[in-house]
Design goal:
By secondary structure, the protein is mainly α. The protein is built from six helices and three strands.
Length: about 150
């Protein structure tokens, strides 16, 4: 049987979980209230905007935003229904599908980006000095290398 977590280990783990949940809820609530877009949809639009030609394979996107294929398919369906993205056959091999950023999706992203960045600064970065931000960045890189890829926001 594994040894119980120490008080410090529990505080570190529970603090991470609580902070992540509260920040996610705060950032998502702000995007939905001001721009009628979820944080997951925002992340997908960011990834598409950063991709060559504004397009990525559906499977790559699902993995990058850490969603199940079913959950991602529903999100992609909503983005397409709202006109922010469209599905096209893969440009490279004709197999599979890619999600492609539309002009409306790019416009939605630009509208939401300022709000999202301001919220990140106000609710997260402003609570940390430069040294603490650098330390956290190093920790996330180290843990990400162990845990796998993560989405960009």
């Amino acid at each position: 049987m594994p040894e119980p977590l120490s008080a410090q280990e529990l505080a570190a783990w529970r603090g991470f979980l609580r902070t992540h949940a509260l920040l996610w809820r705060t950032l998502e609530s702000s995007l939905e209230a001001r721009h009628a877009i979820s944080l997951g949809a925002y992340d997908v639009l960011v990834l598409l905007d950063e991709a060559p030609g504004g397009r990525l394979r559906m499977s790559e996107l699902a993995g990058a935003v850490l969603m199940s294929s079913g959950g991602f398919t529903r999100l992609a369906d909503r983005l397409c229904a709202e006109g922010f993205a469209k599905r096209e056959r893969s440009a490279s091999d004709g197999r599979g599908f890619e999600l492609v950023l539309t002009a409306a999706g790019h416009e939605k992203l630009e509208q939401a980006r300022e709000t999202h960045r301001a919220d990140i600064r106000a609710h997260f970065l402003a609570q940390l000095d430069d040294r603490e931000q650098a330390t956290l960045a190093a920790i996330w890189r180290r843990l990400g290398a162990v845990s796998g890829p993560a989405a960009s926001s």
